[in-house]
User: Fold this.
Amino acid sequence: MPYQSLDADKLTTTVERLHRRVSERFPDSGLAAVCRELVGLAEKARDTTDVLTRPMLALRAVSGLLIAVLVAGLVVTILAVSRPEDGFTLSEFVQTLEAGINDLVLIGLAVFFLSSIERRLKRRRTLAAISELRSIAHIIDMHQLTKDPHHVLHVIVDTPASPKRTFDRHALSRYLDYSSEALSLIGKIAALYVQRFDDGVVLASVNEVETLTTGLSGKIWQKLMILESGRGG
Assistant:
């Protein structure tokens, strides 16, 4: 179904197009450099999601072999205990039962660890990539913090420490719109990681990124609304 899942290639193309648009209008801006980094993260997400769907055959083979050895050792121990040469006394039976339960718990934990190691390795890799997306969202927000619409709508006397502002109303509107678009695309790139990798921890991290980008984009749209209201005044 073409409209029931994100297309990683088309998403990457969209990010590349945004980078070109920003670079053409604001060639020396920090936003253009950030969008260039975002292209790399989109390509990384596209390649990583393909890797996440592939089984790690070597790891599975080693884990399966170790699990088989553990289970075989447990079976041999049970058979040896169930056929003692001499009868059990009550104290010996209790000690053997306690040791058997401890061994069973330890073996169960070992089996769980080995059977889940592939998922945990993939989860660690995915969370690191999502952390990069979270960081770049904050960087985009930093670049638009000084883009104050009041400075293009009113005459405001700057102080020596004030940032240099060269945008007119139209340029500022375009800059803020591009920033909001970049934040939206960050959320979509993050969503790629859970599209084919069903993991609760990763899903929670992706939701955090989407909540973050939505909140940051909301601040930008407040500035755009101020610009629009000033246009009609």
The chain has one domain: 8-232. The chain has a mean pLDDT of 80.
